[in-house]
Amino acid sequence: MSQPIQRGAAAEQPSFFIPDLCTVRAVFLLILVGELLALVLGVSRFGLRQFSWEGFATLSLFVQWILLLSAAGLCRLRPRLSRWPRSRAATLSYLWVLLVTALASACGQWLLIETGDRGLWPLDGWQILENVLICAVLAGIALRYLYLAQELRQRQRAELEARIQALQSRIRPHFLFNSMNSIASLIGIDPVAAEAAVEDLAALFRASLGQASTEVTVAEEVELCRRYLRIEQWRLGSRLRVDWALEALPESLPIPSLSLQPLLENAVYHGVQSRPEGGLIAVRGHYSDGWMRFEVSNPWAPGARQPVSGNRMALDNIGRRLQALYGEDAGIVTEHDADQFRARLFYRVEGHGNL
What we know:
Layout: E1 5-6, H1 24-46, H2 53-81, H3 86-112, H4 125-168, H5 176-189, H6 191-208, E2 214-217, H7 218-236, E3 240-245, E4 254-256, H8 261-272, E5 279-288, E6 291-299, H9 307-326, E7 331-336, E8 340-348
Parallel strand pairs: 3-5
Antiparallel strand pairs: 1-2, 2-4, 5-6, 6-8, 7-8
Helix pairs in contact: 1-2, 2-3, 3-4, 4-9, 5-6, 6-7, 7-8, 8-9
């Protein structure tokens, strides 16, 4: 099996508090904030009654110049800054913004004077100092906000991982003793099959004890489910039949580890094992418009004990892990009719297009 997928973009540079300012969304927000800041400065300088649109345009150009140049520099420096101590990176980022402000103020004065007077450029140091001081206050507030926001994200991530770990630690396959008995019976008659069963059981427990904050691919989760069903096949024989319909799914699609396997375990124990004739378990998967959906169905007799009553904890566990990783829109639902019980899990995952 390949390595699990690390959840979230935070794995890129988790300890650096300045976000990536090269993205389209970041640039758009910077421009929007710059216009609002220019409007505030324009109102404070000219007043509403004598508001100057020409002065506002000049202020807007000046503010956008500082913001975009500062963002461009921080964007280029970010990979290096992320490897430095946080205090050193914050100090350098702060000084860079102040330097850009001072240079932009000086260049702005030069551009606004008459063409013929540029040889006698009267540098207004007080105006430059005023702009630098304003920028120092605003940049300090912005950097402090980004730092606190990053601290909050780290705390929330730690709490999320602890919560998922607590949920995942409750995943303990109930078929352990039956599997060990099956393996013991196979040793004398088919040592090769016994060895394969031991490998399948080891893979299941390796996944159960793995990192709670990671995902696996659909291909890896399906392979784990096939290993589980192979173990049960030795015990149930021809009574267990499985119909897979996952061919249309992209194999690289992420899914939380041990999401499908407990559903199959429920189907085996409550839909196949309790019936002398066994039964068919159908596994369906569908991805469309960013939504990932799986359905596991198994036979169920109306007079039998409801499948959800014995393993409600496992189903709730899966639902809580899905919501912890993908938000409140994710989850799991169950339904049954006269002879079929169905469990459906769903969550939203972007980046693979429609099939």
